[in-house]
Specification:
One of its GO terms (molecular function) is hydrolase activity. InterPro entries: AB_hydrolase, AB_hydrolase_1, AB_hydrolase_fold. This is Alpha/beta fold hydrolase. Pfam families: Abhydrolase_6. The two termini are 20 Å apart. Helix content is 40%, strand content 18%. It is globular and about 45 Å long. The longest helix is centred in the N-terminal third of the chain and has 14 residues. The chain folds into two domains: 191 residues, Rossmann fold (3-Layer(aba) Sandwich); 56 residues, no CATH class. Helix 5 crosses helix 7. With 267 residues, the protein is an alpha/beta fold.
Length: 267
């Protein structure tokens, strides 16, 4: 198998987006969620690469990608995805993880040339499965980042947007991963924005999706995520839903669980 090829594409606002490709065949774009960059989807890309062209990229404000506008607008990320699709041939399949799943679906809803879309554990509030995040999380994140408080921004996102207990976040602060999380914190308002107002499931919008869709979650993940993805699969006409045994939200560390499912779906 060939080595990954790293290049840069330009979004309409002038931001530079770092794109990595490996393999050959049909392009499958892999979009990570919050706190993820192309390095966190590299294992999945390598796993898929013998069969497809696996494409990973740093969402704006992360890793090797810049953010010229810095407006935290969903449209900016849609423009970035469009530029990546154009770079790999003008049409692609797309896989999104967590908030990356929400971005993948936004790309579909905005008419980007996506043939098939697969999503893994998109976070959403539906039917009282969990409390809605506070309405001011976005503004407080932007304020903390404006002060250079990346540590505080990471904590705020985890506790109030995701719902991780404060005690667990306190333990995470002492783990080696915390430095990596803080390095990605500058882009967290994008994750909040793409998930929509208080993360409510937008069933009426998803009901307009007509391309083949695959909705996946693990059976070891949070119960509220399982409920959300069941509702998402119901909202998208003709979507196929799969519950992966032994999997949780950290699926990117277990690419072998996703490989047969994605290769079968993307053909």
């Amino acid at each position: 198998m060939t080595s990954p090829v790293l290049t840069a594409v330009h979004s309409p606002d002038g931001s530079t987006i770092a794109v990595e490709t490996i393999g050959s065949g049909t392009p499958v774009i892999l979009i990570g969620g919050a706190f993820n960059d192309r390095s966190t989807v590299a294992a999945l890309a390598s796993t898929l690469a013998p069969h497809v062209t696996a494409v990973s990229y740093d969402r704006r404000g992360r890793g090797g990608s810049s953010d010229v506008r810095g407006d935290y607008a969903v449209q900016s990320e849609i423009d970035d995805l469009a530029a990546v699709i154009e770079h790999v041939g003008g049409v692609a399949h797309v896989f999104g993880h967590s908030s990356g799943a929400a971005l993948a679906l936004e790309g579909v809803l905005h008419g980007l040339p996506i043939d098939k879309v697969a999503v893994y554990e998109m976070p959403a509030v539906v039917d009282g499965n969990r409390a809605e995040p506070p309405t001011d999380v976005f503004d407080r994140l932007v304020a903390r980042l404006g002060c250079g408080d990346y540590d505080g921004a990471a904590e705020l996102f985890l506790t109030e947007q995701v719902g991780v207990p404060a005690s667990i976040v306190a333990d995470m602060r002492h783990a080696p991963v915390w430095e990596f999380l803080c390095a990605q914190a500058n882009s967290l308002p994008y994750d909040v924005a793409v998930s929509g107002s208080q993360m409510r499931l937008q069933s009426d919008r998803y009901a307009t999706i007509t391309i083949p869709a695959l909705v996946v979650n693990g059976d070891q993940t949070w119960p509220w995520i399982q409920t959300a993805n069941q509702a998402l699969a119901t909202a998208i006409p003709n979507a196929r839903r799969v519950v992966l045994p032994g999997a949780d939200h950290e699926i990117l560390h277990q690419p072998e669980l996703l490989e047969p499912l994605l290769l079968d779906f993307f053909g």
